Amino acid sequence: MCGIAGIYNFRGTQAQSVETVSRMLSSISHRGPDGFGAYHDGGVCLGHARLSIIDLSGGGQPMSNEDGSVWITFNGEIFNFEELRAGLEERGHRFRTNSDTEVIVHLYEDLGHGCLERLNGQFAFAIWDTAKRELFIARDRMGIRPIFYAEQNGAFYFASEAKALFATGHMERKLDPLAIDEIFTFWHTVAPRTSFEGVHELPAGYYLVLKSGALERHKYWELEFPEEFSNISFEDAMDELKRLLIDSTRLQLKADVPVGAYLSGGLDSSVTTALIRNYTGSKLQTFSVAFEDGDYDESPFQKEMAKALGTEHNEIRCSYKDIRDNFEKVIWHTEKPVLRTAPSPLFLLAGLARKTGFKVVLTGEGADEVLGGYDIFKEAKIREFWARMPESNLRPLLLKKLYPYLPAFQGQSRFYREAFFNSGLTAASDEFFSHRPRWATTAKNKMFFSEALRNEIKSASPESMMRLTLPASFKSWPVVARAQFLETRGLLAGYILSSQGDRMLMGNSIEGRFPFLDHRIVEFAATLPLHYKIRGINEKYILKKCMAPHLPPNIVKRTKQPYLAPDSKSFFEGGKSAGYAEELLSEKKVAEYGYFNPRPVAMLVNKCKKGGAIGFKDNMALVGILSTQILHRQFVEDFTGALPLDREKLKIVNEPVRA
Fold it and tell me: d(Cα 358, Cα 346) in Å, to the nearest integer?
């Protein structure tokens, strides 16, 4: 895993390009502290910050083919590179390294942009074709690895993080009001929109081509559900899912450094850990986060699983103070507002892995989206059933079974039915039927928006932007399939894999790998009948059945508990607020930055100080407002750029290294 950066300068000089790329790499050195390289060809310059995982001595970048006509800077891993390499060697290609990076170069020589179809991995890369004078930039199917870009003053810039674009000194730094609107609706921006005006994110499954100053964007992969689901038997489906999971895990263990695993105590990470332990024979170290607040702590389940599998287990305990002390660092890395503090403990967890001597960890992300694990999918099923008889008092009672860990949902009050689940109930054909209650609840916190912000977004519609991302066949899919798409293409890529994943991991120079997000598993799961994934309201049914022999019964039967962390309590422990929170949430600063209405924010802060925050809504509002204020201070007000790397640290390749 690495950081990449580069410039396609339409009228600049190569010397300026190299110096600028040096500053860009300096700003994202946390992504790749093991070495820095740059290649220049006129106004084109590719940069690379390396986190060495495979071919530790020979995998430096940027890297070329035999004659130096094709150059690449690459962030990620290609898990099937050994298989691809064998085929390339049979066709006459000659390799000088043992890296997966060189495989992409030679595959591009054979297939051009079509090389993407053959790659099994998580990646963002840029290829400069010197003969075509063409820059080719691509991102993996699931959006695991990030890539951002911008055009400014006759130049095209790209990098793994937006801060590297700002480090050029050529980009205006301004938060995008429409991005704030989207985050306070969906929890994430809708790619290509980012938090910053003028900065774009390449969507998952897309590639860019830049030639002669013209930019083209193309989709090469999409998550699709079939018109008719597979008629495969449940037993055969279990066998195939298990086979794919074993193979994916085996492939993702490839590394020339030790590989560990996260163990949350839930089903998904337990499955990943069990597969590593039972099917690879690897001696395994596991990592987990425990909370001092017992309402969030899952450490008994983590320890049970670690004991059952005989792993060497490492734990970090997270307090309110730990969350608030690290929250500013978290926002520096997320580069976007967040509505929950959940990334903070994961930042600390990645730090633990790094301190223990690891550079790579496998995690269970993606299983919920791919195999129907989230409550929102079961909600959609129940609400669709309820919608057939909207006046029923019995059908909505099924919802109580979904939330045994939320006492308010267990009472007889009609509040949650009327105020939450009933949102959009009578429009089951609506493409956003499954997500209406969630989005409506989140959007209520727009009440804190300032008049100025409201004026800037008044003609915009977040849902219109989301609608543009939908496949043509989307409306014909069942409600649960549509919900899975929205979670996978939206929340997974836009929040979980970024704010909770890549950014927290790479902030500590750790590479995360996600066996459930092997595109073969994603594509196979999409063909399965929905009742294989959700049986009644039993989520991830097929996964539980096929993995039950390898897991403790308590883990398999355990009611799913979503990963959460303390929110407002972390900033107002004992009625006192963290210093930066006190300042940034003050009426003076709120008015100065201009995104929120000072007086309602002051009332919310006072409420949280007294421990009176009510449920998710108040906590989301507080964290969302604070993180937006922090983001403004870090990137708009105080950003000072980055100094170029020390000359001796940056290896500049002016001539190709020939085989």
Answer: 15
